[in-house]
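[SOLVED] Need 3D model of a two-part complex

Original post:
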Amino acid sequence: NAGVTQTPKFQVLKTGQSMTLQCAQDMNHNSMYWYRQDPGMGLRLIYYSASEGTTDKGEVPNGYNVSRLNKREFSLRLESAAPSQTSVYFCASSEVDGQGTYEQYFGPGTRLTVT
Amino acid sequence: RKEVEQDPGPFNVPEGATVAFNCTYSNSASQSFFWYRQDCRKEPKLLMSVYSSGNEDGRFTAQLNRASQYISLLIRDSKLSDSATYLCVVNQAGTALIFGKGTTLSVSS
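Solution:
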């Protein structure tokens, strides 16, 4: 049971390049999330997918797109990378019901540098 | 007002000390409350959920005051291995979690 996996672990991009961050979970969770974490800013939600086939914007969606490929996989795409997107990106998954969100499980993160 | 506010610290304490972290949240409709722990350059991991009646897990005690919209975490008999950043987390039913910026704890021998 791998939990939440992310690829790549590290990436350096030049301004204007594009790339896709991959995320997969094997816990059969309905909900998946993408966060970015910057020094002094905490974790900020980029996009989330409450269930297969749905995606919603979070706090900081500009410059990103997402795809919920199936129940297991949720990818994050940077179409034209900018230095402001230098950050650590975390993917997470959880179950959600009417009582509230259960524990979120995080992947190990992708450290992205845009030069 | 930020949705979830924490004192960033750092809190520097000796081994064996008792330390308390506080957190306030702005949305009175919040239903679920958690403390996560994040080690340097690692992903956040759930430390404990916070229940209305308060709950304890070994050396860790979490309290919730809904009237004051306040959550606390008490760590007794601090260990070197407790050094980390502690994240206060809240959410409304069915929505994404809102994370505080975290409080950094450094335990020294």
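Edit: Chain A touches chain B through 23 residues (CB under 8 Å).
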